[in-house]
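JOB MANIFEST
job_type = single_chain_structure
chain_count = 1
residues = 656
[input]
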Amino acid sequence: MILQEIAASLGNMLSLDHFIYLWLGVLMGYVLGILPGLGSVAGLALLLPYTYDMPPSAALVMMIGLIAPQHTSDTMPAVLMGIPGSASAQATVLDGFPLSKQGKAARALSAAYVSSMIGGVIGAIVLTAAIFAARPLILAMGFPELMMLVIWSLSMVGAISGISALKGMAACTVGLMIGSIGSASATAELRLTLDTLYLMEGIPLVIAALSIYAIPEIIDLLRNSKSIAESREIGSGWRLGFLDAIRNRWLILRCSGLGCVIGALPGIGSSVVDWLAYGHAVQSAKDKSQFGKGDIRGVIAPESANNATLGGSLIPTLLFGVPGSASMAILLGGFMLIGISPGANMVSTDLDLTFTIIWSLALANIFGGLLCFITSRPFSRLTTVRYALIAPIMLTVVFFGAIQASRSWGDLIALILLGVFGTLMRRFGWSRPALLIGFVLSDQLEGSVYRAVQIYGLNFFDRPIVIVLLCLIALTVFGAVRMKRIDPDLMSGEGGEGDRRARLPQIGFTLVLLGFAAVVLADSFGHTYLARMFPQSVSALALVLIVGVLGFQIFGPPTTKVLHDGEVASTARQSSTHYMLWIVGYAGLIAVFGFTIASTLFIFAFTTVKSDASLTLRAGLSLGCLAVLTFVVWWLDLRYINGLLQHWVQMPWWMG
């Protein structure tokens, strides 16, 4: 049976369509790694609307191809100018950037690419072994066990991710409450829809991912008002970097193993494993004097670990339907959209698809590494472009992806409102991964609760695996609370201030969350038992957690923490508001001129005000956007959102 599945998977792997979809995904992931602000979460969200009509194997291969090379290509801006392309490249900056300043950028990039490729392949091998090792456990789990596993995952994500356990768990419950908007899975009763058709099916996953992740990151980079990197020659040393990786092969193997283990634990992620791997490299080295000054081992260790993390994080995602990170949450949403159910099916009826995913992961890491080798020199020049020229194009891409959810104004309104919410979450130190994972798992958890209660009643607490998972949940929460028991970041967040009066914006945001939980609780009383059980329980827990955060913010001691970019709080708030107004203005242009013309005008206006680029370059970017949007309309037979202009004047087909 297994041999037949392997043969079927190999047939998929060797097909031309498979390689085309895989390469398309790799190319997108490569670009996302170089350009900060989107990342794999937003990239997957943009890809999801186009997976409906694809064969399941092709859609999954493309998504795997997208997320695999990002941890390789994000090394480029990290090494060239000390600005990581994503959070997973933060530790690489410590030694990669000093090597670049010494004229050894090529050596650092070469060692990083080789380490990343090896780490990614090791992650795929570990995932293969996990498929066979975990198969008996998966088949032994019923509805109560799956329910408790999801709860354990959520408790771990909430307790570990973010700067405080209390905020993280509260953010997780907020995600669960947002996920409960729409029709109840058991009774189809409408909850919190505000009598709108748009919210009947809940908030689309694409909108949630783009607003919570992409928009806050783009705004933060715009606040810095500088290029992604400054000019920096790559130089020579490609062969030396390859030999460095070979000489440190045991370090690569150890850090790759560490990445696999950490990746399989929900809530930790590649941004943490980078630092753990770097710390291991320092502790295991006999000569520690060059770390932080340009030691090649400081590049090899984190780069091998963060690529292996992907294989580890796919273990709970594929086998139990429990995402270990925000990108895995979006991938899980992609599973559901194309009709694939993670869990027992992945080691039985869909085993061929599982092997296709694993081997595609290994190939994507190799392809991504080779692509980085080939294009590092020409694409390094792209990192010197001022971000004000790139940001409006990225916002156009975000808006384009958002309107594909339902192609209605509800998409843009939800994108802007949740974008403001995500920006405030980032500023005040609330865990966005915890919220997004809670949002994605909301339907799954609600369905598991219904089935477990209906079939077993409360007797499911007597089952051995359930008891073990309950103990793990208690230990997770206790350990996290003990570790972060007195955390000044509860009061300060990302934008901490030194006096109590300056905490008022944070307290106001917390009160908004408290009010949302109260509304969800009040609304639940108007529904039948099966429809109110889940939102009632979650909102009650959210009230307790948010009140706890509010208590620390009001009565806790003042903190002297300052903003991460050195700005004072009022400036940061004004700056974020300023760019949110630009985004609202973009939506206003769409309302008047329609999406195609509005995007062209927005790019020209933004680059005129925010950059010193020549008229030729600004006009070229704007007209290039118009050309691409027109081509997409023709190629995919899409229809964009029309504005008042299209109602008043008969426009050509490519203008709405």
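[summary]
The radius of gyration is 24 Å.
Strands lie at 182-183, 190-191.
exit_status = 0
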